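Re: Re: token formats

Sure, here are both.
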Amino acid sequence: MTLDVYVSIFMTVVIAATPILIAALGELVVEKSGVLNLGVEGMMLCGAVAGFSIATTTGATSGGYLAGAAAGAALSMVFALLVLSLSANQVATGLALTIFGTGVSSLTGRPFVGKTVQRLGPLFPHPLSDHPLLRALFGYDAIVYLSLVLTVAVAWFLAASRPGLVLRAVGEGDAAAHAIGHPVIRVRYAAIAFGGALAGLAGAYYSLAVTPMWADRLTAGRGWIALALVVFAAWRPWRLLAGAYLFGAVMTLELQSKAAGVGFVPPEFLAMLPYLATVVVLTLIALRGAGGQRAPACLGKAFRAGG
């Protein structure tokens, strides 16, 4: 293969990894606050259809990304209301959110099936973005670079900022945090809204960049991969970045194998490669034991101020 082919494959890996990284960063913050939201897939689908509908009707692709983030945040507030204010079971509510998001996206996306949208252009000027080699670094749209900025920001926020330390304290010991005056419910509402906005943005990236057209269930279960990636990364942003690009490489391997017409491998097996990799990774983590992989102590547990 030529150098140009290798650069193209690398860029495909980056684009495939970007929405998973964004969604996983949002879920990481949510779980660090002590809340388990299994509705990432549903929020991604709602973000995808909201972003695509706004982009096609207004012609503003950037507006589509904002609409996707807003749709994900709005749906996450339904989840927050149920699990924080009404103390509903987090696992059941998250699963219901995914089912709801899947149905809503199928219904509202029906008029847009088969339509296409204009992608955002590269962020950097043409001499860099079109260069045969430098385009591997400078040939992407703004959302790819935003995902890297978000990784740095989330890592700093959780490790060095006072609000981030408060959020971690709420996730590790909500009763103790409440006892010293921290607003546990408000912190968790904010974390869930942030996670929902990033899930919606990730979904919008699928419909506006990865495959710039609308199709039913466009995200194809990538929200579940983002959830598994948080565990794989041991709730650490830098590991999350590496894991997202690892899964992006697996997805690219599937696409490249199909394009090359690898006849001795069934296409069904190629399609299941990303999910098979997810199962293998989680199994290896379980067999290896804790090893620093401990989840936040209050993850999935309801908090009652009077409890």
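Second one below.
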Amino acid sequence: MIDYIDRHKQEFGVEPICRVLRQAGVAIAPSTYYAAKARPASARAVRDGELRTEILSVWRDNYQVYGARKIWIALRRRGIMVARCTVERLMRELGITGVVRGRPRRTTIPAKDGRRAGDLVDRDFTAGRPNALWVADFTYVSTWSGIVYVAFVIDVFSRRIVGWKADTTKRTALVLDALEMALWARGHTGHPIAAGLIHHSDAGSQYTSLAFTDHLLTAGIDASIGSVGDAYDNALAESTIGLYKTELINRQGPWHTRDQVEYATLEYIDWYNNRRLHSRIGHLTPAEVEAVHYRQHQPTPAGTIN
């Protein structure tokens, strides 16, 4: 009742509201209201106020896409111990929610004449180390100046987006440039690819083209192509793109130009790789997963006795 009176007292006044409430069978006197307002806030109310601030901070710092579970985990990572049900309650009071993904749309066109590699993955999207299996796909973004296509290369081990490219055409150069970025980024950070890396994609003409296939061969990468028209055969790439569309593109439009999409995508991928918590990798970030792996697998210096 106190909250109800607070919400309406500017319009009707405290005494008239209390009078109407008494007529409706709810006995609350103006003196009772004023006494309640004069009492110091309870420990729970103070704690809730502090938690609301932290919850809003986490939600706003993460593209306003986190639901209760991820906000709860993010708070614990900040050293704030709170029950998940409390987070759910306070999010309801704040009127904030996470986002829900819609159904993905396929954009690639199966090749009619391109030479297709076999399926080396067979829907097993797991890897024991970085640079063992990459998956690739692209999507489109509608802008006022036309369609922008955005291609991605994702490392299966860490879910890290290792390469990407935005362009106004979906020719082979789009996916080639995303691959080139991935190769450069891995080498630039001191973890270049080695023999055995598999690059998996769907059967789109861009990925089955002679130019792309030859580039993989030159780089020492094994090509893998899923079956035609089967979304599950490239499910991890499509899932990542689904997050990108849900968390960025569908929420921050309308989009005007390719440059606007490109800059927003750059910022999103930095967040996605370095700060976004991923449930599939233990609610860590891709950067954290790779850092843990490399710390555990550093070569033993010569002369060191284990």
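The CA atoms of residues 116 and 208 lie 6 Å apart. The longest helix spans residues 43-61.
- S.
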